[in-house]
Amino acid sequence: MCGKMIVLKVNNCFLPVQKAQADIEEHLKTAEMLSLKGDTQGQKEQIINELLKVHTRFQARITEYQVLLSMTIKFFKNLNQVGLTILWSLL
Is 39 left (phi over 0), alpha (psi -120 to 50) or beta? Predict the structure, then answer.
């Protein structure tokens, strides 16, 4: 039961993350479309490159957090199982 609640909370945490990902991707599309409209004297490439870097770093960080949360959930499930095993061995 507790594990399911943790998973739900983790999923709820990633809703804002998914929105941020969508926002970054939308900004990338907007920057690329604006770059097609005229000469920006090299600024368009710089803006697009910076947005791509931010997007890549954001994706990497989110992946790291997902792995960390998954490992944390497994740790506490295993810790709970150890506690139950010890409890049953004492009975």
Answer: beta
Decide: 69 and 3 in contact? Cβ < 8 Å: no
What is the per-residue pLDDT across 19-65, written as a single tens digit (0 to 9) for each? 888 888 888 888 777 767 766 677 777 877 888 898 899 889 988 98
Q: Which two tokens stand for residue 91?
A: 């009975």
Picking from 22, 10, 15, the residue whose alpha carbon sits closest to that of residue 74 is: 10
Give the pTM. Answer: 0.61
Look up tokens 């920057």; give the residue: 31
Distance CA 49, CA 28 (A): 9
In 3D space, the residue among 34, 56, 54 whose CA is nearest the CA of residue 45 turns out to be 34
* Maximum alpha-carbon separation in the chain: 78
